[in-house]
Specification:
- It is built from six helices and six strands.
- The protein is of the alpha+beta class.
- The protein has one domain: Nuclear Transport Factor 2, Chain: A (Roll), CATH 3.10.450.
- The chain has a six-stranded mixed sheet with strand order 2-1-6-5-4-3.
- A hairpin with a 4-residue loop joins β1 and β2.
- The longest helix is centred in the last third of the chain and has 21 residues.
Length: 164
């Protein structure tokens, strides 16, 4: 895939809206890095595994509830940004979530995503996804670290079961 960074981001978010993790993964450089408050991943395959797990969970637990809106996609001097909002059911609890995210990107020399940083309010997310537990503990650094550990464990387990 060789395309300008802006086209890469448009392809990425169109694929995300369609829950097409393979097309999302194809937007990343082989040595890409992804970070958000829950995941920290290196490499296109690991990042693609995360998107597959998340997309599969949405399809299995409430495709009818899935909505993705994105706007303010821009690339300037090789750096990209986007704002996106997702509405979905969180697989482990079945709770409805509305996540509001601002993303930052850098690109390799052929326009693929090299770094992808998603910023969102983890306490807001945890209140929705985890209910009372998230409300009471979602702002505590220890709890946030535990969320990252649990997310990494879930991803490792999912990837070990997923067909290659």
């Amino acid at each position: 895939m060789t395309q300008a960074p802006l086209a890469t981001l448009e392809t990425f978010y169109d694929a995300f809206r369609a829950l097409d993790a393979d097309r999302m993964q194809a937007c990343y450089a082989p040595d890409a890095r992804f970070d958000d408050p829950v995941f920290g991943l290196s490499g296109r395959d690991s990042i693609g595994g995360m998107w597959r797990m998340l997309c599969e969970g949405i399809r299995a637990n409430g495709r009818a509830d899935w909505r993705l809106e994105f706007r303010h996609i821009a690339v300037e001097r090789g750096l990209g940004r986007a704002h996106w909002e997702a509405r979905y059911r969180f697989s482990p609890t079945g709770a409805r979530v509305h996540n509001v995210v601002d993303a930052e990107f850098s690109f390799d020399d052929i326009g693929l995503i090299r770094t992808h940083l998603d910023h969102f309010d983890l306490w807001r997310w945890s209140r929705q996804a985890l209910g009372t537990k998230g409300l009471l503990l979602g702002w505590v650094p220890w709890f946030n670290a535990q969320l990252r550990i649990e997310a990494a464990r879930r991803l490792d387990t999912w990837c070990s079961r997923a067909p290659q």
